[in-house]
Amino acid sequence: MRVPRPRRLPADSWRWATDHLPIACVDVLPVARDADGAVTHVGLIRRDSPWGEVWCHVGGRQERLESVHDAARRTLDESLSPVDDVVPSPEPFLVQEYFPDVRPGAGVDPRKHAVAVCFTADVPAGRALRARGSEARGFAWFEVGALPEPSTLWPGSLRMVQRAVAPAPDTSGTSGTADELAAYESLSAREVSLNELMWQTPALAMTAMAFLLTIALGDGAAWQRALAGALSAVVAVASAQLLAKHSAGAIADADALHALETRRGMLPVHAPPKRGPRATVRGDGLWAWFADRRSRRWWFVSLLAFGAVSALLTVTATAEALGALV
């Protein structure tokens, strides 16, 4: 049975408390799981913050004489609907502090020093939740491998999500963690290999096409120039396909590595690159514009351009050879 809720502090008393005392809070993360119990999606609310609107977990104060579990259930019910049958996990998975200033391993809340006890709340897969109350502006489900950009999350939410989606420690005597680390190392090695092959492809193709185009543009017999042009066109098209193949494989492996990093709470070194102008390059001017372009696309188009020119030379030389026979 829940203890009746006491009257909340007056505004001036609350200001004094936040200025002088740590505030006890509860955080709740709605999650959806697959048949094996692994977290596949996390639910976040859209709310106001000192930095504008951000994505954040559900959270609120723990009231006097209220257990942390009751506080978590009340906070969830006040923020989302329908959650009548949703119960926070029996035990918290994390205790996280928030400070007015930035500190390693902690969240940030410029208004107060808070100590948050963090729970997950299992929600049936496919259930559409909606935000309610004065704090939540909206609600959305996110796949664990496609979370919002860190800059759009409340500072501290990402760490909480990463801890929540990390697999539970293996206590069955098998080495699940060791297997995942071995898979991570294998995937990482293959991703590096594919990335190297991707950039070797156009370099080797250019060498071969330079030799063949020297013949196609030379003074040799027309049939020789036609043959060299045709071979150059074949090399260009085959190399463009190989570049695309290696690129797709490297991207797929990078996505798998990022998913493993997210589940294990590791540093997201394989996170997708930021989108938009100047997202990855410092500086300005023509150099910065070129540096911000996607090189693999430029090389792909360049190979196709060489293929088109080679095909044109082949047609011209073939027409010349046929004309000589007439």
Oligomer: single chain
* Main sheet specs: 8 strands, mixed
- Beta strand %: 15-25%
* Count of helix runs: 7
Order of helices and strands: HEEEEHEEEEEEHHHHH
Tally of extended strands?
10
Q: Could you estimate the helical fraction of the residues in percent? A: 40-55%
Strand-pairing-aware structural class: alpha+beta
The low-confidence runs, each spanning 5 or more residues with pLDDT under 50, are none
What's the N-to-C terminus distance?
103 Å
What is the C-alpha radius of gyration, as a whole number of Å? 29 Å
Give an overview of the whole structure:
The structure is a single chain. This protein is an alpha+beta fold. It folds into two domains: 19-165, Nucleoside Triphosphate Pyrophosphohydrolase; 176-325, no CATH class. It contains seven helices and ten strands. It has helices at 11-20, 68-79, 157-165, 176-216, 222-264, 285-291, 295-325; strands spanning 23-33, 39-47, 54-56, 58-61, 80-81, 94-99, 107-108, 114-122, 130-131, 136-143. Strands 1, 2, 3, 4, 6, 7, 8 and 10 form an eight-stranded mixed sheet that branches. A hairpin with a 6-residue loop joins strand 2 and strand 3 (54-56). Helix 4 (176-216) runs parallel beside helix 7 and helix 5 (222-264) runs antiparallel to helix 7 (295-325). The chain is elongated and about 105 Å long. The protein starts with 10 loop residues before the first helix and ends with a helix. The model has no long low-confidence stretch (mean pLDDT 85).
